[in-house]
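Q: Could you predict the 3D structure of SDR family oxidoreductase?
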Amino acid sequence: MRLKNKVALVTASTRGIGLACVNRLAREGAVVYMGARNLKRAEERALELNALGLHVKTVYHDASQKETYSAMVKTVAGQEGRLDILVNNFGTSDPRTDLDIQQTDYQDFIGTVDMNLASVFLTAQTAIPIMKEQGGGSIINISSIGGLRPDISQIAYGTSKAAINYLTKLIAVQCARDNIRCNAVLPGMTATDAVMEHLSEEFREFFLKHIPIKRMGTPEEVAGTVFYFASDDSAYSTGQIVDVSGGFGLPTPVFGDLIDLKNKR
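A: Sure. Here are the predicted structure tokens for SDR family oxidoreductase:
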């Protein structure tokens, strides 16, 4: 119960990493709001969690309508009188249009970048005065290992996540004197429903060759790092960019091939 008497808001939280964050923060005693466009689904999830004795509520948020970012934050603060933890989990990319530098249309590129950056900028901009007035708070941005490691596709997604990493540091520096911390958590390949449904087993096996821990992460493991930054355990940490990727990108680039060679001996 290390988050008792705290109020948290998690965006895009009806499934996957977002839902795992809601669950973990609520289990640690926080009152947690699920920011979601599909309120019916969010309310179903909230009922399930509340039946376990947790305190979970819902608030409307549609990433395509920028005015709902500020409205969402103000609604939570208005109802609870404070906002201690903001988890910016929303992120989007369309694999059909988010390709490489030559094949990606600029309007598709800038549209993805705009949505992903707005999800951090607008929520933080609204939450910071609230946190400042109450004496502090913690902002946690869910970025991606793709913001550190360039890929052969998803140019807009990777660019936006790299920008979010930098924006995280800027917020941390500009708000530290107000006792507002800002950190980023960067998931690697995580076993969410979306990953399991849309990535073939062949691709997953290929990718796992390059992960030293040699398995996908779980949403709960990402949520564990989010909880660390939400709690006072990280009271002296801000501006940190922490990947939860099983060591992806850490060893030599030919790591996976070397492992194959070793296993063939």
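Q: Anything worth pointing out?
A: The beta strands are 7-11, 31-36, 55-60, 85-88, 137-142, 180-187, 241-244.
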